## 1
Amino acid sequence: EDKVVQSPLSLVVHEGDTVTLNCSYEVTNFRSLLWYKQEKKAPTFLFMLTSSGIEKKSGRLSSILDKKELFSILNITATQTGDSAVYLCAAYSGYALNFGKGTSLLVTP
Amino acid sequence: NAGVTQTPKFQVLKTGQSMTLQCAQDMNHEYMSWYRQDPGMGLRLIHYSVGAGITDQGEVPNGYNVSRSTTEDFPLRLLSAAPSQTSVYFCASRSGAGVNSPLHFGNGTRLTVT
């Protein structure tokens, strides 16, 4: 059975802190791993990772994939209150995109 | 740019009623899918389609039917609603038959079954 496991499930930090969100996966026919940010409505796409060891970066967010150990991390530096959201990790198994349960991040002023 | 459009945004049904959740995309995407999102459960795949006339089951297909007669539309039917189907439903699409592209999500339909 395919599974994607995220940790921690929730996290509270102060503005300015750096956070690391974890995602491990076990899926058949793995193709790529994706990160999404979900606020009140639809998930919005952050990163897609297909190759091990290559960091993807967008502003204060970055992510990397380890295909040997089957995990990925999402780093957020200098957190802001606007970073408060649920962060979803998902892995493609064939056509299906399998999601983890998400990490709920709250950034307090 | 409309993207993925879902209607209605909210719906309340009584147990046993039927309804169709609508999903349309204007990006000419081949792949479309339906997910449900429940507290503590993440997003779970209900059904998906890789092109017009082709559908397949996801992780939680029971109680739901789909069809794909056009590239643009992918409706989700609940034939006899049950309280366990109370959830937020998301439709999502992506381009191409290959899997190396992200899903684009609609804004969701919040369904309550009483």
## 2
Amino acid sequence: KQEVTQIPAALSVPEGENLVLNCSFTDSAIYNLQWFRQDPGKGLTSLLLIQSSQREQTSGRLNASLDKSSGRSTLYIAASQPGDSATYLCAVHPWMEYGNKLVFGAGTILRVKS
Amino acid sequence: EAQVTQNPRYLITVTGKKLTVTCSQNMNHEYMSWYRQDPGLGLRQIYYSMNVEVTDKGDVPEGYKVSRKEKRNFPLILESPSPNQTSLYFCASSPTPRVQGEKLFFGSGTQLSVL
């Protein structure tokens, strides 16, 4: 059964710092991996989606990498800003799972201090 | 605007009082599903539907029912809510279940509290 773990559970950094969020998954048989952002009381915003054949994706100050063989992904945030404060979720699409299910990690709560 | 709409956004109820959380999508998507989010556990799938009149259990279906009579709607029904169903609920949809790994579109969530 696929399991997704995110470390750390919470992170507090000063504004301007570069930071890395980690995600690991137990089964490398995945279609893709996705990073989401969740703000309090709001829904999920998809940040980056990496297909299983890709190694990384970039969007602005965000860069996500995928090492499928080792079951790891990282989300790199450059020059962090207070507006980046949110919960970041990692999710994988398991291979051959019936029903297009996403398996989520518990998230990393990020606080960027001004 | 293409979207998944859930109602209500917030709901407080008491144990045993039947309730329905509605989900509607305007993208003509075949696939719809429900997730619940609890602290420290991430999102977990409750039920999903591959198309009209086709539904199946996800990982945590106990205490929930769903129906898919129309393509656009996928309500989540709690016949006799209990406090352990207090959670944040998300509805999601995607164009076709025949394409595995397809991107899901999520609603804004429904925060349910069962007293």
